[in-house]
Amino acid sequence: MKVTIKQWNAVATWRWDMAEDDDVCGICRSAYDSTCSKCKYPGDECPLLMGECNHSFHMHCIIAWVRQEQSQDRCPMCRQPWKEKGA
After folding, report:
1. Which stretches in the chain have pLDDT values below 70?
2. In this protein, which residues make up the domain named RING-type (predicted)?
3. What is the pTM of this model?
4. What are the residue ranges spanned by the domains of the chain?
5. What are the E-state strand segments in the chain?
6. 6-71 under CATH 3.30.40.10, yes or no
7. In this structure, are residues 32 and 20 in contact, taking their beta carbons and an 8 Å threshold?
8. pLDDT tens for residues 20-33?
9. What is the phi/psi pair of residue 51, to 5°?
10. What is the pLDDT of residue 35?
11. Which of 6, 7, 43, 50 has its CA 20 to 30 A from that of 71?
12. What is the DSSP letter of 62?
């Protein structure tokens, strides 16, 4: 018996593997598995960055935040000095 596949429709889903229960960016308030305002598609173009304070943000969101003079290089959630975990 020979089988021929004439059409195939694939469906996929993904999520960031994050330890925290809160699954939205603290700056743009968009879900981690969606995009920040600067990106068209979620994924490698805008990875999540976690600070030593254990708060996570889209990469573009935290970079824009830290570049603002009034941020004083502090986490927008807890106001501790911002340092990327593992950096």
Report:
1. 13-22, 42-44, 87
2. 25-79
3. 0.68
4. 6-71
5. 48-50, 56-58
6. yes
7. no
8. 546 888 898 888 87
9. -85, 170
10. 79
11. 43
12. H
